[in-house]
Amino acid sequence: MSETTRHHRACHLCEAICGLTIETLGTQILSIKGDPEDSFSRGHICPKAVALQDIQNDPNRLRHPMRRVGNEWQAITWEEAFALVAERLAGIRERHGSNAVAVYQGNPSVHNYGLMTHSNYFLGQLKTRNRFSATSVDQLPHHLTSLMMYGHGLLIPIPDIDHTRFMLILGGNPLASNGSIMTVPDVEKRLKAVRARCGRLVVVDPRRTETAAIADQHLFIRPGEDAALLLGLLSTMFEEGLARPGALPIDGLEALREAVAPFSAESMSLRCGVPAEQIRQLARDFAAADGAVCYGRMGVSTQAFGTLCQWLVQAINLVTGNLDRVGGALCTEPAVDLIATTSGGHFNRWQSRVSGLPEYGGELPVSALAEEMLTEGDGQVRALVTVAGNPVLSTPNGRQLERALDGLEFMLSVDFYINETTRYADLILPPTAPLEHDHYDSTFNLLAVRNVTRFNEAVLPKPAGALHDWEIFVGLAKAYAARLNTELKPTLAPQQMIDLGLRAGPYGDGHPLGLSLERLREYPHGLDIGALKPNLAARLKTANQRIQAAPPLIREDLQRFAARPLPAADRLVLIGRRHVRSNNSWMHNYHRLVKGKPRHQLLMNPLDLDRLGLVDGQRVRVRSRVGAIEVELAASDEMMPGVVSLPHGWGHARPGVQLDVASQQPGASANDLTDERELDVLSGNAVLNGVPVSVEAA
């Protein structure tokens, strides 16, 4: 008989990378618990990690390549699948050109190092400019701001949450997200510790979120108007002599001061709905704190001035001397240093065919994906490859994208579900499940609130006949290269790549730790390398090694902001929301996460219910420019009047979807209401917050 085995690894279902202790008996999972010896998460665990066993045992999860024949799915061999992909994609490329094939990569790609290391081994051979990803759904403004200010799109300063004495959060709800572009397990204890050391936590959000509920102060703000508040704060700091930028090498401070001077707290109050005196006092308190940090996340990125918001967040930290300061915002020094080993990125080297939207880092804004398929002419997208993504539910105007997918000549999905998007695929290639492969968090160690590293061994054996993600891409690459009769360069396994990265990194061959993959295996609970520390000046990748405080393209966007009309007082607008038991669209088929009271209702302030003649619990119809949905209404005084909230990622009652648990609580898709025409014009990022809607009885 098999013996019980104890394993240690990090959960990779969200950005917090909490350490786990997993007990197994053969291939049976007996328990999943938080690891109290984990160097980073200290035993913390959230409900998502416990559901890893639901993923492993899910009867809906695909185990073999599946080809769609009419409305039926048939299993085929890996060899047949690779040959089919090579023939179909090469044929489309020969008839219509390289750009006739598009690629979409979803959020889970960064949670799987095999995808990070090897997806481009195949996708790069397609030679297409029509590449899209979830980046332009919710975080592109972060990367574009860092590229323009610091010279590298991944050089993003992280809140020093363990030492700050004043944390200002806009558009973020870490208690639900477990941190986001801020890898921070056990975030509730860390936020409460800010208050325990006599610090302050201030949350700005149109909803009194779970994080706002534990804050010292919560300020309601009109959705889509965070730039106004941030401008009011920054102009106050300059006007009242609160600016103390410190000793960092900086260009453009005077240009920054001149650019924000017209946007006084009084004029910005009319836009954002926060009283002018509260704006001014917040600026004074922030500047006076002994270590403060401003953090803006998804809610401020997914609006019409998302890049402007992220620039202003950085500028506030900069001018108050809190950038590159303990207790402020600091950059990591990860063991595998992607800043040192990758180019900083590029922007607007080409544009999308139909709307002329700018590329970033070789990707176009995903809001343009459907129109590139639907608009006829030279360069029309006729085939699509999706990787670990569900854009029908996660990108704007999902119904339009459905129509586009239905007209493709060929579609390939690397995924282990027949979901709202992959049901349109001609072929689905399922990888091994999360616990069946090893993993290294190259992305989230780069964004962590401490310098940490660990290698995660596989918990369960790889099933016979299954392939890891990276092996799928190697197989596709070989078949495609053979079809085109081109030479394919050899590649290494992901483990070998990580070993090389560790050895070349700051704690590798030239450091006393001498980190390598073999050495890292000696630390099954992970290795804490130390607290973040000031290092930005040495890590800058700008041409002159100086911070660019007022990038011209971003500064020019202030003109667009100034010309925008004031928001209508009687307008009802939609925002999203997150829940700790959910992560976008792909965790609704697990009983442990969806059990209990449904969490996908439309939240509305009771004053708005009375004004519209609606009642708590009734079915309502929500309309926007692009479509309508029906959903249950829930009265909630946590909502700002004039604002309604619906979580994204639901909407599972679509024909052909094979998700048994999700279909029992299908909900409605918020992205059947979001508008693909509404963008942060500068970056092309989608606008998911502040969507004008009407609500009526269904």
From TrEMBL:
Keywords, in A-Z order: 4Fe-4S, Iron, Iron-sulfur, Metal-binding, Oxidoreductase
Annotated CDD domains: MopB_1 (cd02762), MopB_CT_1 (cd02782)
SUPFAM superfamilies: ADC-like, Formate dehydrogenase/DMSO reductase, domains 1-3
Top-rank taxon: Bacteria
Gene Ontology molecular-function annotations: 4 iron, 4 sulfur cluster binding; metal ion binding; molybdopterin cofactor binding; oxidoreductase activity
Alphabetical list of InterPro entries matching this protein: Asp_de-COase-like_dom_sf, MoPterin_dinucl-bd_dom, Mopterin_OxRdtase, Mopterin_OxRdtase_4Fe-4S_dom, Prok_molybdopt-oxidoreductase
Annotated Pfam families: Molybdop_Fe4S4 (PF04879), Molybdopterin (PF00384), Molydop_binding (PF01568)
Residues in 4Fe-4S Mo/W bis-MGD-type domain copies: 4-60
GO biological process: cellular respiration
Gene3D superfamilies tied to this protein: 2.40.40.20, 3.40.50.740, ADC-like domains (2.20.25.90), Dimethylsulfoxide Reductase, domain 2 (3.40.228.10)
Cellular-component GO terms for this entry: membrane; oxidoreductase complex
Alphabetized PANTHER family for the sequence: NADPH-FE(3+) OXIDOREDUCTASE SUBUNIT ALPHA, RESPIRATORY NITRATE REDUCTASE
Full protein name: Molybdopterin oxidoreductase family protein
Native species: Stutzerimonas marianensis
